[in-house]
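Let's practice the habit of predicting before peeking. Look at the sequence and jot down your guess about where helices and strands might fall. Then scroll down.
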Amino acid sequence: MSQNTPLQDRARLANPVHLLALGFGSGLAPKAPGTFGTLAAIPIYLLIAGLPLAAYLLLTLIACVAGIWICGRAARDFGVHDHPAIVWDEIAGFLITMIAAPAGFVWLVLGFLLFRLFDILKPWPIGWLDRRVGGGTGIMIDDIVAGVFAALVLQAIAWLVGV
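Done guessing? Here is the structure:
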């Protein structure tokens, strides 16, 4: 496929790799695809949140490791490194953010906002990694680290308020 053809002509939601990379279609949002990709992570989180911590961690690890291949493959198929429509990295990053998060709507929203804040602002080393690491690993690593930062802040807030 030519790199000049629109993504809509290259992305196929019937292709399982594209479906996952595009966050089940959420990455095709015309504005703020990363935010829509993070929103797509919420049902996944809700499905696995009640699992034992070890199972949640294993599924999150699988999402991250598989994401390296998924995002790298989609980027090659789309002809663009880290195309904004590729949002599997946001899904994995949000799952990291929510590791051992307190239950409840407020914590879900706070986790969402914290993850988006770190993902958008990209404080060091997130932005540094985003600029210097290529391939599927490069697509995933900044969101993984943003998820870790957001998780640490979320846990600190929970500790401060005594939850």
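How did you do? Helices lie at 7-10, 16-21, 33-48, 53-78, 88-97, 105-121, 126-132, 135-161.
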